## 1
Amino acid sequence: MDFSFLDQLWLARIPLLKGLGVSVSISLLSIVVGTGLGVFVGLALVYGFRPVKWIVRGYTDFIRGTPVLVLVLASYYVLSTIGIDLGPFQAGVLALAVFCSSHVGELVRGALQSIPKGQTEAAKAIGLTFAQTFTYVLGPQALRQALPAWVNTAAEMVKASTLLSIIGVSELLLRTQELISRTFMSLEFYFFAGFLYFVINYGIERFGRYVERKTAVPS
């Protein structure tokens, strides 16, 4: 890493920071929306009526079996053919959130099914509604079990956000490629971009550890 790279890095600080901000925004939105949808997907898989289970099961299997790049292209190009015009940013968030929801749904399903049924029956016996049972009995236990795998899913969403450059989203990777085309410093800028992605994922991992400590059962 020589001074010429440092000079170019300083000159390119604004585009890189903007690209980093877009990557963080896309990742955060897709994780939050995808997690929210995934909770409902998991609940439907466990407690839904049989036709609902079939539909949701088909949704999760189809989405999980589809490459993220195909979902991104479909959200941007296919939806426009049926009158739903989304910008690159919105289409990217939609694709990643849908992909995230299918994985989170499976995590929630597995976590809920691992909880003994006697706890649900006990909650019914003391008069708790389903919403209260999930909030106070099932949800906290499912959270503790699904959290480690959720952290991995969130990290995958950050990495998948790099695919949005193909539809013109000015995220970190696209900004980096634009700088490389001008400076021809591919190794240096790709290494620096990789470092920034590592920082984002490390932050997610630390957040997961923090929530894990807060939700741990005292021994």
Note: DSSP finds nine helices and no strands in the chain.
## 2
Amino acid sequence: MIHLSLKTEKELTKKGLNTRRKLLKAAEKVFGTNGYFEASIVEITQGANVAQGTFYKYFPSKKAIYDELVQQMSRDLRLFIKQSIEKSPQIDVHRRGFEAFFEWVGENRNLYSIVLQAVIVDKDLYRWYYEKLANGYIRALKEAHKTGEFKLLDHEALAYSLMGIGQFIGMRWIYLEEEEVPKEVLDVAMEMALHGILK
């Protein structure tokens, strides 16, 4: 179940909006560094430099601010990928999509960690996050299929397969090693995704 914060951004004053964003930024760092179960509201408020009671004006619980961060990542990542690929030629769309995902993960390691934790923190939230990502991918695949360039394959299965490639390459090089994904690694992934592994 996804919790909602007490006030939406539209209902807040400029000062309130700034405080809410400071709390989210601090929570991103605390959850990303310590993990959800070890994180505390005290650490979040200290990181945001606000009184502990202030937290509850914006979020009813630690879980609520965690949920907000996952929802924020979902929105921001999907928008970033969409904007990155919309001007790419059709033949380059898949590669550019992977590149955009890797770029985003590299710049948002704490948020990526927070989503990975969701499989234990809240399985329904974890499922919601990946379903939102997959649904966007499925729509893009259906549009691409209309060009006649790709085989008729089940779009959901294909979306999750491609997401799996991006997920584990991103985890292996960016998240665990704190490196950029090597060009030759992306070359292999694209060769497999677009042409398969059989001679």
Note: The two ends are 47 Å apart (CA to CA).
## 3
Amino acid sequence: MLDDFMTRAALAGIGVACAAAPLGSFVVWRRMAYFGDATSHAAILGVALSLALQMSIFAGAMAVALGMALTVTLLAGRGYGMDTLLGVLAHSALAFGLVAVSFLSGVRIDLMAYLFGDILAVSRSDLMVIWGGALLVIGLIAWRWSALLTATLSEELAYASGIDPKREQLILTLSLAVTVAVAIKVVGALLIAAMLIIPAAAARPLARTPEQMAFVAALTGGASAVIGLQAAYALDTPAGPTIVCVAAVTFVLTSLLRPILRS
């Protein structure tokens, strides 16, 4: 069954959706959209370093994404607005990554595949990495679900409940780095933030509890991956961007139906 490249692509898309759904819900609740952008753009620098050091793309992307996420956390509240800080870091990381790639002599690299993904080229080993990372993220979020919700709702309430908000932020940061590392093969660095945010935003009008929102976001992301792949095959369009387009259409539909769904 896994010899079929479309089957592997669909499983990879569903795996990324399962990892991104609960994490994307927290990104939406905490209004951290730019945070996802900064971390995902840093992955290109991780790809360049991985190729230069002849190490795993997954390991390099995750290390740099985690480093970027920790940098944002450390620099927050030091005189700059969070949107300004994230904007500077996101675009700087992408620029440094693209420049670093240009210095790689003797190494063949399909830059478009890392920018926009190459889900149709997912191998069995890639599939193992994607689902391993997805299960790790799901496990982390499930383990800290109640504490993460409390810290998201109010830092004061978290402290009163004996929960350290900074520790919960670190767990989200680690989960985001893992998700970026596993998703870069599927949708690419430029579209990872879209798969984090759009399915969660589309699920918001359909859910009445946080748990429902995370579950519906996973369904939305997985369905977008499968339908997007079918559409890309039929229309001969890039698979990664087509998947995001399907998710975007779903968001528009649920937004238009929001008054009806809330009544």
Note: The CA atoms of residues 104 and 242 lie 30 Å apart.
